[in-house]
């Protein structure tokens, strides 16, 4: 049973209503401490919907990187456990945010290049939806959630397991609680609007299946993040 029911949703078609409701449950943390979602049967009963609508919603949220499934265990919010987590915890104290950005600049443009070469039309549609969620997010925490989901989706679509592992390690290191304030200071309404425009350029290049253009757009985006992060750290009293 959910800890809390989601807020009332506007009248809409059942699949969209169910997707909105489960997305709200996940994004607002209305779950037990282990992050486990109720079963499809319980969600269907809780939301007064058919199991097909619940299953379709879970498929969409998994593609967005907001949930993961383990056969025989259930469905959980967030990302699946990764062996890089332990290594990330070991090296996090020795890595500063600017070093993490240097690493991102080395790997994410290459991932964007591969993503452009391998993305399907459905992949591009999911990227556009994640960019839209990032744009519409209210508050820094929500913006971070959707921004991270977008970058992770690009890394997964690239389809290179070794590079995805390297990306995951960097992502784990930079998601530490002690770095949250630094990232939030570098994310202002003005920079968010600029980041949104850069996300669109990355996705347009991916949609055009133009690897070099996608890599260049990603590099410019990360260089902007790098500069803003560095400036926000220098400006702190």
UniProtKB/TrEMBL annotation:
InterPro entries from the UniProt entry: GntR_C, TF_FadR/GntR_C, Tscrpt_reg_HTH_GntR, WH-like_DNA-bd_sf, WH_DNA-bd_sf
Annotated TM spans: none
Pfam families: FCD, GntR
Keyword Transcription: yes
Keywords: DNA-binding, Transcription, Transcription regulation
Highest taxon above the source species: Bacteria
Keyword Transcription regulation included in the entry's annotation: yes
Annotated GO MF terms: DNA binding; DNA-binding transcription factor activity
HTH gntR-type domain residues: 12-80
Identification of the protein by name: FadR family transcriptional regulator
Classification lineage: Bacteria, Pseudomonadati, Pseudomonadota, Alphaproteobacteria, Rhodobacterales
